[in-house]
Amino acid sequence: MEETISLRELMETIRKRLNLIVLITMAAVLFSGIVSYFVITPIYQSSTQLLVNQAKSDQPMVNPGEIQTNLQLINTYNVIIKSPAILDQVSEDLDLGMTVSQLNEKITVQSEKDSQVVNITVQDPDPNKAAEIANQIATVFQKEIVDIMNVDNVSILAKAEVGETPSPVKPRPLLIIAIAFIVGLMAGIGIAFLLEYLDNTVKTEQDVEKLLELPVLGAIATFEEQDMQKMSRTERSPRLRSETLGSK
Asked: Where do Basic and acidic residues bias regions lie (predicted)?
């Protein structure tokens, strides 16, 4: 019984503060939408792929030992790609005016497990610049790795390209708005319950019983002015009818 009453009180609190909850939720959604579409700078992403293959030889068969050696070198290549030896040259060739650390923040280098393919991903507010940087990193690395490690086993598998209508990878406005909706709804409900908890005024007979620990014997009903006028017109109507019949 107590659980039923508690649940009813909770629902009553939500119903009573529903306007506040809706207002806070809509404000959170509106604010997140404005920030997502008009404040946060969209970031575009472009990727290129490198293939670490066996060195060219006259042997018709693929040597498994060379493939395993290339796989072991990939982790080293991932570090070299983001090293000053490569990024300084890229920044100079493209006249980016960036330091190695600044350019490093835009680059992600990944390789799948037991795969000879290395993915170079670049993020930038300009989609064309992101593709240009990714392709230049691949070109410079392919050229410089010959002198750095005295090997020639890297080839460009796929170049970065910009689509006709590139879409940013972040921010994701719909996701941000959805999160803001949930957070705003929870915040609105929390504030509603907090206001209800802080409100210690006496409003109902049940509040009087809880406060005084005495049973309520009676209550004085309250009427709005419109209700009083309706009751007054209702009372006058039978009198007028009776007077009219009496005069007849």
From this structure: 227-242
Could you give the CA distance from residue 160 to residue 2 in angstroms, rounded to a whole number?
Answer: 65
On whether the CB atoms of residues 45 and 129 are closer than 8 A, the answer is no
Look at strands 117-124 and 107-111 and give their pairing.
antiparallel
| 246 vs 233: CA distance, rounded Å | 20
The one-letter amino acid code at 157 reads L
Of the candidates 51, 104, 58, 63, the one whose C-alpha atom is nearest the C-alpha of residue 81 is 104
Q: Are 42 and 168 in contact (CB under 8 A)?
A: yes
User: What is the token pair recorded at 201?
Assistant: 């005024």
pLDDT of the chain, 248 residues: tens digit per residue: 344 446 777 888 888 899 999 999 999 999 999 999 999 999 999 999 998 875 554 444 455 556 666 677 788 888 999 999 999 999 999 999 889 999 999 999 998 777 888 999 999 999 999 999 999 999 999 999 999 888 888 899 999 999 888 889 988 999 999 999 999 999 999 999 898 888 777 666 666 666 666 676 666 666 666 666 666 666 655 554 555 555 55
Kindly state the greatest CA–CA separation across the chain.
Answer: 130
* Structure token digits, residue 144: 């410089």
Q: How many other CB atoms are found less than 10 A from the CB of residue 206?
A: 12
Cα–Cα dist 135/47, whole Å: 8
Strand 107-111 relative to strand 154-158: parallel, antiparallel, unpaired? unpaired
3-state secondary structure of 119: strand
pTM: 0.67
